[in-house]
Automatic annotation (TrEMBL):
It comes from the Bacteria. CDD domains: siderophore_interacting. It holds the Pfam family SIP. Gene3D superfamilies: Nucleotide-binding domain of ferredoxin-NADP reductase (FNR) module, Translation factors. It comes from Galactobacter valiniphilus. InterPro entries: FAD-bd_FR_type, FNR_nucleotide-bd, Riboflavin_synthase-like_b-brl, SIP_FAD-bd, SIP_fam, SIP_rossman_dom. GO terms for molecular function: oxidoreductase activity. This is Siderophore-interacting protein. PROSITE patterns: FAD_FR. Residues 18-173 form the FAD-binding FR-type domain.
Amino acid sequence: MSQSITLAAGTAAAHADTLAFRGVVRRVIELGPGLRRLVLGGPDLEHFGVPEATMDLRFKVIVPAEGSTVESIGRVLTPLFPEAPMSSGGDPGWYKMWLASPVSERGVMRTYTVRALREEGGERLLDVDLVLHGVGPDGSLGEGCGPAAAWAASAAVGDVLHLLGPNRALTAVGYGGIDYRPGAASHLLLAGDETAAPALCSVLDALPRSARGVALIEVPDAGQVQPVSAPDGVSVSWLVRSPGQGVGSLLLPAVRAEAAAWVADSEGCTAGAPAARGAEPEDVDVDEVTLWEAPVDNASDDYAWIAGEAGVIKEIRRHLVRNLGVDRTRIAFMGYWRQGRAGH
């Protein structure tokens, strides 16, 4: 990956922490039923990134909806493209700027995680894996299909996808768009559904070889199982749902089964002692509020990262915190989506 980049004075690239990027689809890869990888390139992506491993790095994609087009979205985002004129202190604030335009011009925004960011053939490439919720095997758009899945289902080489993300020239270590913050922990419990699989795979590929623990990844089809280069000490289990099984039907019992052993092997736990019961975590109405707890001050050797459908994550949160007494400073809980809500 290239280490340096030339910044033109008086441009957004020299002054804005968050930039808009025109990602050009270089390849479309079918990873399995309901899962597509878009490989994005283009000159703008030379400015995208962070000065550390991407791990579960979040960024925004903006897709057409309600009358907006790729061209209208580009016009709205023009002040934040890397080459846009900008003076010191002139950053308009990306969200405020985008929100000031009507949906019919600005499109809709969704959050995704980086699967991989790399140099290939002299170009900086970004891999984005998109779950096609509500898209039929024939490409038809059904119930639960949101605008991002609809766009991804028809994406082709040469199409432009607008992104908002970190300016790698100005972003410091500790960037807030990365929630995987284990500190010095090497004893891990990682779990998620298909929407968390890209982040989990990215994390597993980047773990130090000394890491140990377990990773549980639930997917709706065996075709979505992906190779990962996890350390030898981290057991990776892909949980493949059968037709008719709901999201979380395999992940929740698997976490319950593995978590007891993980806690028993945790720092400060006496061998053979029963798990300590913790306080009931405050209730979160996942239909109204996003469940998102990502501590950055873990000081132990134990760390858990749990992400996926919000209702399932809420149940796992209750089990780990209340039933097993795991300190919440050691666990990141993230409700990536909510079943039945296309815009979540």
